[in-house]
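Q: Hi! First time doing this. I have a protein sequence and I read that you can turn it into a structure. Is that right? Here it is:
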Amino acid sequence: MKRILVVVLSLLMLATAGCQAAPEPVVVTDPAPTDTPAPTSTPTPAPAPTPTPVPTPTPVPEPTRATIMVVGDLLCLGAQISAAKKGSSYEFDYCFDEIRDTISSADLAIGNLETLVADGYPYTSTSSKKSSATPAPSDSGAPEPPEEPAASPPSDGEATTPSSAGLAKRISPPVTAVPALETETPAASPSSSGNPRINAPESFLTAVLGAGFDVLTNANNHIYDYGADGLIKTMNKLDEYGVPHTGAYAEPEDKKPLIVDVKGIKLGVLAYTNVLNNKPNSRNAYMVDRYKEELVADDIQAAREAGADYIIVCIHWGNEHTHKPTSGQRKMAAFIANAGADIILGAHPHCTQPFESIETERGAVPVLYSLGNFISSMGQTIHKDGVIVSMVLEKAADTGETKLADLSYVPTLCAESDKGRFVVYPADAASLKGSPIESRLAASRKRTIDVLTENVARAQ
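A: Yes, that's right. Below is the predicted 3D structure, encoded as structure tokens:
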């Protein structure tokens, strides 16, 4: 019975349990595995192509540039000396007050010193005039002036240097030296050619240098006016002031091409004269560079061999008081150009003459037949006009080639003031306005441009 009861109870319990809501099974599930994407390698950015290095261009060095200015005759005549007299001395600085800035602006300025600066000889006289017999043109084939008598050779042991003892052995005929006077200077007698002898006080030279001139040429018809002694004293005076010069020489060993370094450009300066008032004897012939084709050709070659990058030939030639070059001048110019000169600049006519260009195998060579007077007291209008030739030279840094980059000229006027003083004025376009002598400068400028034109060089 008990067994039956237990069974019944068990069944009842089972039934009761079956009637109750079956509890939700607690299902613990692992989260569904997330698909882990296959590891992808981060693409390494492709390196940018290395640009082919472009070489930095080496800067081309700037060429060297230098401005060279050249003027014509620097004369010291009697009226100039009288006007410059100040007490017991002479003062010429005022002559260049109006032109000093122009000349000083050049890297190198060259002038033709057509006077001696010889102590003990008379200064140029105001009364000295040419004889009525005008000398024949310098290139006309006329007879040359008489040669000075040959000097006696020195005995053994006698010096030939320009000392007071040696000079006497090289001067023939001897010239009686006139003591320098503080107040009055004896008048200079004319030379054998009938031309006045030209000799300046030392203060004229210092005024020229103070105006900005760096190099002086001396090959002209007045360089032998007082013979060997006057020439030597002048050369020694230039040396005393440290002035490079050429065309006349105190000693044979001085006779060599002048090479001047201008900002790294080696400039050759040669000077010759085709006319002399007094002719040195054969012993003293070396003292003056007289125009001879062989000499010119040899000098140009020697200058090139000495390293000259550019060669200026200055020459004293032609007929005075005319704007027209002679056939002789043109013939000489053609030879000089073909011998290797780079530019030819003439003087002696005391007035301007034209610019021309000569074609050679090396290219065109400019020639100005006459630059005219720069400073003088010559009275005619034709004598008052002059020019400053301005050259800009350019030397390439890589090749060393030197060329003429620019060629121009500044017209000038040497005017007499109301005080009787002789002053050089620039007559370039910029200088005209406001000048107290504007109309005179304008007229001078026009005259000069009419003669030179602007076919070869432009007028400033």
